[in-house]
Design goal:
Layout lengths: L2 H16 L6 H8 L3 H7 L3 H26 L5 H15 L1 H9 L7 H26 L7 H20 L7 H18 L7 H7 L9 H14 L4 H14 L5 H11 L6 H11 L2
Helix pairs in contact: 1-2, 1-4, 1-6, 4-5, 4-7, 5-8, 5-9, 7-8, 8-9, 11-12, 11-14, 12-13
GO molecular function, one term: DNA binding
Protein name: Putative HTH-type transcriptional regulator YuxN
Keywords: DNA-binding
Length: about 280
């Protein structure tokens, strides 16, 4: 075992007991039996160590899930997806428990962004699985179903990670396969539209550029039929290019497009840009 691996292994033991915030570098080095100097030869800071742990766990987890979804047979796909998920949670239970109980307020921007990116990667794998399993049937409900699947993953893992109950993994997985199939075949009401997903996909703490807003607005204008909403969007685009309108007029134009089903995302971007 290398010095870096030793630090990661021993630090995880402390993090699992105390949390990220309450664990100091001094405690980690004492637990490893090394000097602070040796620690800083491997990691520049505690945050860098936490990032390394997150990378190690999430890369393995996402890679395992992605392989099952992309390479597995369709008839066993959902079973193998859930089985791989919970088997991985169990195998890395200390770190899985830590991520579940650690408040996000204790993460700095880099750590929070890292988890966000891994979460988006997992969501994309789940969506790919849904489309492969249910095809056209899932077109309007795939985002709702993906959130249900993620909810199953999180909630049922608490049974053995938090409450430490003995689990029949095969029974758990078969029950979730049944539940997921029932939802996929019987859901009729969509709550999560494409526009909401676009909002969620906005990079954390990063404002879209003016060019990106103009591009989004232009695309929506091209896709819309002639209407008061389209005219309002065209005027707002012109305001982006050559500001001239009174704030009250801008507010009125934004109100015109607010409830149009194809304008929710550009309305969101424009409100943020104009500060409305």
């Amino acid at each position: 075992m290398t010095k870096k691996q030793l630090i990661m292994e021993k630090a995880l033991e402390l993090f699992a007991k105390q949390g990220f915030e309450a664990t100091s570098v001094q405690q980690i080095t004492d637990h490893c039996g090394i000097s602070k100097g040796a620690f800083y030869l491997s990691f520049k800071s505690k945050d860098e160590l936490i990032v390394a742990l997150i990378d190690h766990f999430m890369r393995q987890f996402n890679a395992d899930i992605d392989f099952v979804v992309s390479e597995g047979k369709k008839e066993d796909l959902l079973y193998n997806f859930y089985y791989t998920t919970f088997h991985s949670f169990s195998k890395h239970s200390d770190f899985a428990k830590l991520l579940m109980k650690e408040p996000t307020q204790s993460f700095n921007e880099e750590l929070f962004s890292k988890l966000h990116n891994y979460n988006k990667s997992l969501e994309n794998v789940i969506l790919s699985m849904i489309e492969r399993l249910y095809g056209e049937q899932s077109k309007d409900l795939k985002y709702d179903l993906s959130y249900c699947i993620k909810g199953f993953m999180s909630t049922y893992s608490e049974l053995f990670l938090v409450y430490k109950l003995p689990i029949d993994l095969d029974l758990l997985v078969r029950s979730l396969v049944e539940k997921t199939n029932l939802l996929a075949k019987n859901m009729t009401i969509s709550f999560i539209p494409d526009e909401l997903i676009q909002m969620l996909d906005q990079p954390l703490n990063k404002e879209p550029s003016l060019e990106q807003i103009i591009e989004t607005v232009s695309k929506n204008i091209e896709d819309m039929e002639d209407s008061i909403e389209k005219e309002s969007l065209m005027l707002l685009k012109q305001e982006l290019l050559e500001p001239a309108l009174h704030p009250a007029i801008i507010k009125g134009l934004l109100a015109n497009i607010q409830h149009h089903p194809h304008c929710k995302w550009p309305a969101y971007l424009l409100r943020k840009h104009f500060g409305k």
